Amino acid sequence: MGGVLMNLRQLEYFLVLSEELNYHQAAERLFIAQPTLSVQMSNLQREIGQPLFLKVGRHIMLTNAGLILQSHARKILRQVRATKQALQPRSEPASIKIGLSGTHLLTPLLKTFQKINPHTSFTLRENTSASTLKQLLNAEINFGIAFLPIHNPAINYRYLFTDEIIAVTTKTGPYHTLENITLTQLTKVPLIVLDPQFAIRQTLDQLFLNQHLSPQYLVEVTSYSACISALSQLTGIALVTRSFFETQKAGHADLKVISVEEPGLKQALALVFPADIPPSPKTTILMDQIQKYYLTKEQPS
């Protein structure tokens, strides 16, 4: 392995490929041609002297050497970004990029913040919590809102509030007389739920599994809004978060909330941001406002 000449670009390419495990998707994310990525990875593996990826059928997976390099590459690239940030004069980003599991979490606050900072724009990326954390580590967003727990030392977090999964149905459907429902009863109802990649869905799946229950998932969607849209066309119950429905109920007088009798359906949300790159003053102010809003809202009246 003597004379290794790997460079930062190769490490960046490698890290994206190690996350996507697909050359086509990684090349699209990097905005480069797939042959360019293949050549760079071949050069990197030749310079290191051992394979980083193993081809299994049509898929690739990381070798032990690849796993080691992935861990070190993340640290190296984070440190490079932190060093550049420390050496540059402190400047405010023209646009603050935020990753979150639903735009409803920030909609009530952005208008107020824009009044205070009229020249700052915002980019909201609706993601799963896992995608938000990945984008944070890759410096694709300034901060995010994600579900706890978070066990990555490269990410700091500040508690916001505890959300919960609720059941929603139409007031004219066959389940409109229900006021409460148990997990066991939910297995007898067609359910409209989020895709398994979402943290809140993973919590739901684990609870069913722990109680040896088999739910009837009628439709799986990629947003809370799609859950409600599907409910207007189908007979069943949609499982969404209370925080989302609270922002939507004014426009959906035809819907009814059914309380789910399961304490495990509650999950904490937090602001997440890089541990090694201090946020800009405007970003800090925005995070302070978000935390104050939710902590005040969660206080008993």
In short:
This protein is of the alpha/beta class. The protein has two domains: 8-85, Arc Repressor Mutant, subunit A (Orthogonal Bundle); 93-300, D-Maltodextrin-Binding Protein, domain 2 (3-Layer(aba) Sandwich), CATH 3.40.190.
Give descriptors for this structure.
single chain, 301 residues, Arc Repressor Mutant, subunit A, D-Maltodextrin-Binding Protein, domain 2, 2 domains, 10-stranded mixed sheet, two-stranded antiparallel sheet, 43% helix, globular
Q: What does the secondary structure layout of this molecule look like, with pairings?
A:
Layout: H1 8-20, H2 23-30, H3 34-48, E1 53-56, E2 59-62, H4 64-87, E3 95-100, H5 107-116, E4 121-126, H6 129-137, E5 143-147, E6 155-170, E7 180-181, H7 183-186, E8 190-194, H8 199-210, E9 216-221, H9 224-231, E10 237-241, H10 242-248, E11 255-260, E12 266-274, H11 281-298
What can you tell me about this protein's structure?
This protein is α/β, with parallel strands linked by helices and about 300 residues long. The protein folds into 2 domains: about 10-85, Arc Repressor Mutant, subunit A (Orthogonal Bundle); about 95-300, 3-Layer(aba) Sandwich (D-Maltodextrin-Binding Protein, domain 2), CATH 3.40.190.290. Helix content is about 45%, strand content about 25%. It contains 11 helices and 12 strands. It has helices spanning about 10-20, 25-30, 35-50, 65-85, 105-115, 130-135, 185, 200-210, 225-230, 240-250, 280-300, and strands at about 55, 60, 95-100, 120-125, 145, 155-170, 180, 190-195, 215-220, 235-240, 255-260, 265-275. The strands form 2 sheets. Strands 3, 4, 5, 6, 7, 8, 9, 10, 11 and 12 form a 10-stranded mixed β-sheet that branches. Helix 1 (about 10-20) packs across helix 2, helix 1 (about 10-20) crosses helix 4 and helix 2 (about 25-30) crosses helix 3 (about 35-50). The N and C termini lie far apart (about 65 Å). The mean pLDDT is about 90. InterPro entries: LysR_HTH_N, LysR_subst-bd, WH-like_DNA-bd_sf, WH_DNA-bd_sf. Pfam families: HTH_1, LysR_substrate. Keywords: DNA-binding, Transcription, Transcription regulation. One of its GO terms (molecular function) is DNA binding. It comes from Pediococcus acidilactici DSM 20284.
